[in-house]
Amino acid sequence: MDKIPILRMGPFLLVTIQIDLYDRLALNLETDLINMVHKTGARGVLIDISAVSIVDSFMGRILGNIASMTRVLDAETVVVGMQPAVAITLIELGLSLHGVHTALDVERGMALLQTKHSLDDEMAGDDADDTE
Amino acid sequence: MLMTLSKDSMSITREQDVVPCRNRVKEVAVKIGMGIVNQTKLVTAASELVRNILRYADSGEVLIEVVSKGRESGIRLTFSDKGPGIADINLAMQDGYSTGRSLGLGLPGTKRLVNEFDIKSTVGQGTVVTILKWKNG
Ligand SMILES: Nc1ncnc2c1ncn2[C@@H]1O[C@H](COP(=O)(O)OP(=O)(O)O)[C@@H](O)[C@H]1O
Ligand SMILES: [Mg+2]
Question: N or C: which end of chain B has fewer CB within 10 A?
Fold first, then answer.
């Protein structure tokens, strides 16, 4: 069975989707990612869909699920590289990727995660000061 | 008058048929020179309707036709199944309505993505959805 590889990059996980996913593969990715965030304590997930030519409501729902489930585990999800035609189509389809952050490419997505991550650290630092 | 220039059909029986069906539609769209945005809209619509066949009717068929009307050419897709049918089409066409606990965007979203949309359904007999996307539509 095919599997989408999940790469660890410091506190973040990177997934590059290189093929049009059939359903089983997409559902497996959802489960694998949640497990991996849980296991590694990752603080962010980056999903690169620049090679994906179609996102229908099924796939959109999976991206939304991943974002909301990782959030429960204290990790943010950023979807990067969405093709313009895919973005236009999603809007007309009526799918708003609620709660899913998006960025133009992996670099900017990573920067977004880093900002969120260090903001969290600062706040954690403030908390620590308060209790001292 | 609408003329059919070519015809191709595909049976849909399992989840693994979704991606090949999308690819087939895309190939035809590329062949008639449809632009990338319209291609993407059409293939996404096809994906939604194929999923509905699998989900609600188990199996069915897709007819892919290249059509022309005057100088315009386009693609007409017909999705037919002998599933349970839809009791209230107006309800099914509403954004967010789903008996499958999913997003309920397949039918109304598909209608927005194409130039012509037609649905006929009879409870106990099945459903036929026909969509048409003009090359420059
Ligand atoms: N081919 C079909 N056969 C029977 N019922 C269907 C079919 N397609 C759609 N439906 C009904 O219409 C509803 C709306 O479909 P759709 O807009 O695709 O949303 P979703 O698939 O997310 O429920 C479905 O929940 C189902 O009740
Ligand atoms: Mg549907």
Answer: N
Residue identifier of the C-alpha nearest atom 1 of ligand 1 = B53
What CATH number is given for B3-134 in this structure? 3.30.565.10
The Cα angle at residue B64 between residues B20 and B126, in degrees rounded to 5: 90
CATH number of the domain that residue A37 is part of: 3.30.750.24
Residue A123, both tokens:
């706040």
Which stretch of DSSP H or E encloses residue A91? helix A84-93
Q: Is ipTM > 0.90 here?
A: yes
| Residue A93 Cα to ligand 2 middle (Å) | 11
Any CB–CB contact under 8 A between A87 and chain B? no
DSSP states of A113-130: HHHHHHHHHHHHHHHHHH
Instruction: Write the pLDDT tens digit of every residue in A36-67.
Output: 999 999 999 999 999 999 999 999 999 999 99
